[in-house]
Amino acid sequence: MQQNNSITEFVLLGLTQDPMRQKMIFVIFFIFYVGTMIGNLLIIATIKFSQTFGSPMYFFLFYLSLADSCFSTSIAPRLIVDALSAKKIVSYNECMTQVFALHFFGCMEVFVLIFMAVDRYVAICKPLHYPTIMRWQVCKILIVLAWVGSFIHSITQIILALRLPFCGPNLIDHYCCDLQPLLELACMDTYVINLLLVSNSGAICSSSFVILMISYVVILCSLRNHSAEGRKKALSTCTSHIIVVILSFGPCTFIYTRPPTTFPMDKMVSVFYTIGTPFLNPLIYTLRNAEVKNAMRKLWHIKITLENKR
Fold first, then answer.
1. Structural domains for the chain
2. Backbone angles phi, psi at 172, to 5 degrees
């Protein structure tokens, strides 16, 4: 479909055109991106090399941190570099690649959050059946399904994007390539494609959010039958998950479940879930999880000790 377009590149307008604000954006988002990568890679390394984390919850947390790292990398580096560029040019192929990566790793995060909710539900509501239900084979199959489901979702987005003819202008009023801003540039009636977008991305966001919140309500209600210590531990874990779910799904639902109308706050909402959420997730899971913090201290203390001995 690309050869039928007169547009071979797009110009991103970014978050602002003010030179001073662009420098501030560079500094702020560079710090956010470095913090995101350090936080998520610390979690990945800790879970990978520590013998403490043998439960499915941390198996899924590993893949959540991996998805967050990749999701942030598909957006943040481009935004940081463009903050210092006079003209933010992105080729057609680069734009389509970014659309694919954005939706692939975003959808991966959705699936992993659902699996984490299932894991907590079984652990709290059916503790005697937990070893049988959440076997390692089941967990691995779930992750494979997450990869496959994310790929199918992303391919659908790319097919929709490739069907859009572009004949000018080529100015994208956004800081990244996504279907919503691309629809505004298409030289065709995009009503049907927007309906498909809402029924795909919008349905995934809204339905997953509802399912997750219902599951956590059920989990919290079932805690009445647990001991005070059990309730405290379960509440700590579930609260972390609920915060992440709200931070992840709130902005996504706002962006993908409405008609193709541009609002002034769209860019800031997008910044929150593409840059802010991957940065906050490791902080939420480590600051509220004593087990993760202790394992990190032990693991990195051992590594530093070994390095000093050498």
1. 2-309 (1.20.1070.10)
2. -95, 115
